[in-house]
Amino acid sequence: MVTTLSVTTCYTPIVRIDHNRCPALPEFDHDVLSVPVNQEKKFTAQLMSSFMSITPHHGRSKQSVGCAIAPKSDGNPEGKGVSGFLLDWYRSQPRNIVAKPRQQVLAELFTSMLALSATFKYRPVAERSNYLYWIDGQWSLSLIAPEEWSDERRAGFVGEFVLQRDMTWTITPSVSLIARKSVSDALRRFYDAFVDTFDTDRSFEEILPFHVQSMPYYQRLYASALSRSMRTTVTLGGQASTTCREWYMSLPHLKNVLPAYGP
User: Fold this and answer.
1) How many domains does the chain have?
2) pTM
3) Which domain holds residue 31?
4) What is the pLDDT of residues 115-140, one digit of tens each?
5) Residues 6 or more apart from 151 whose CB is under 8 A from it?
6) Ramachandran quadrant class, 11 (left: phi over 0; alpha: psi -120 to 50; beta: rest)
């Protein structure tokens, strides 16, 4: 169901849409629309070259806190060989992809970009809980729940994030966000940057993060999976030709409203 995060000083869920009232949507089990057949070899070669890079890039842009996908880079910290990469690629394949209403697509894209902008150095597993924190001016995704951490860490808790089988992320927001102005301000800056990416005449597919060289290995891997999933979703929903400006009109533009999609 879709959750709208509405705030006075920060964000709490106020609206839930019952998707049982929506018409049945076709299920798509395999990502056959990801790459045109005549481009598949070229696309795979480019990805292999990218993901197999082991050149480290250290440091983090000070501007990244306002970006829809933060420009971070660690190269390939795992030093993965071909077999390791192919296994990760298989595990991150989007599954059970379906067409979705436009508001749900936008909400899931926002939540997913927020998760993938975070610092994490482990391979996320579908249908497992992850916990997002705003700590020392950056997003951090962890397997450690807030009640298992210090008061300082709990103060930056944003919500529980779950990677779905179609490689989108959903959120259950923290009930305490209303008391955390620094976290809500950071969310607002992130959302403003997210909205700005749709202020263009480009297509929806053109703004998806299929390949962001500056991202660390796992973030890059799952951003690519998210992009393939989203492209298939909008194709199944007959939304592939919709321009970013048309999508832009479906985004909440009220000062204190954010989109999110959660269980």
Assistant:
1) 1
2) 0.70
3) 2-261
4) 999 999 999 999 999 999 999 999 99
5) none
6) beta
